[in-house]
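Comment thread on ticket #2218

A.B. wrote:
> Attaching the input chain for the structure job we discussed in standup.
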Amino acid sequence: MASSPVKAALGELNKDSFVTLLSKLIGESKYVQNNPPDLIPEEDRIVRHVLDVLLPFSTTTGGGPLIVNHVTYKPNRGNLIVEYPGTEPNKVLSFVGMHMDVVTANPDEWEFDPFSMSIDGDKLRGRGTTDCLGHVALVTELMRKLGEAKPKLKSSVVAVFIASEENSSIPGVGVDALEKDGLLSKLKHGPLFWIDTADKQPCIGTGGCIPWKLHVTGKLFHSGLVHKAINPLELAMEAIKEIQLRFYKDFPPHPKEQVYGFATPSTMKPTQWSYPGGGINQIPGECRISGDVRLTPFYNVTDVMQKLREYVDDINVNIEKLDTRGPVSKYVLPHEQLRGRITISFDDASSGVACDLDSRGFHVLCKATEEVVGYAKPYSITGTLPLIRELQDEGFDVQTSGYGLMATYHAKNEYCLLSDMCQGYGVFSSIICQLED
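C.D. wrote:
> Ran it. Output below, let me know if you need it in another format.
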């Protein structure tokens, strides 16, 4: 591999150029925070810096080989597709998923300014360095080098920088719209590497997510006359326990989870609790528990939602059989013809991903990782990447990797390591070379 002319042409990551670009991108991170309706990112701020690097090597303005397509569906919220053409039709590899929005950051909670990049030895610090502006800069540098060195490749190399990954409440902005418009169709002819995970290893499995809300209705009354109340807090606790027991019976650890190395099996649990308020001597009339299901990709999201509805319906019908708490705790007041009641609702659910472990894309990524990083240890998590499941369902061979740090993902004091990004560039170079063979 070392003697490959393509490998020689690509060389190593230009650290100075990469750091300069990333510093500009992090300087825009305040304006690409994604938390509607308060914060709507302006991804075109990032696009402009990427174009400054790549347009000198484009077919339209620089007389170079890069084909650049700036695609915008909402004002100021662009996507960017950059292609280095190969010599053989229908032979392609792509790097996709480098998103130009970030999660929010509160400067008061950080040890340094999240919205300007600072350097501490090998650490490049700021919001977006790991997720995902570091990858935007990294793949930009790869495409710049291709445009500059012009190696002869059989495969076209395509980079897709996307908008609106961190929040899906405004659809039709990013990769979903690009795929719907057919702008990614040619990428089905080769492996698609989604560059938005971490720790330099192939991420071969992710979880689905089903956000749920359980609304519990009881009867409000004075806490000194508890026998006249239906306590929704007690009902909620017992109902959740019963629902969880049934969930784990119906969706136990799946044998394939060991094959993919999932850290946990599927889980169903509460994460938030709310009630209308009132005095401490008052039993409230209602409460709400919210939580989520994290589902490994070997179970169907729709099946789980249907089962959860069935559990709730059965509990309501047989609410007298639910465990109570103490001698006067009850969920039915027959003389008042009152029954406690629970209802369940769901927010947008997404399915998990199990990458194809038999595809060439997977083997190439593993070999490149072993060659550059020194070992390949694919892993799986029940975190979610809903966009890539949609691509997989449409027939793309999606493989995922990333070169930030999982420990700083969405965290305060986010940073990445320059040395890791250098290795990421080496992995990309190795992938291109392997697919030329």
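A.B. wrote:
> Thanks. Noting for the ticket: The first strand starts at residue 67 and ends at 72.
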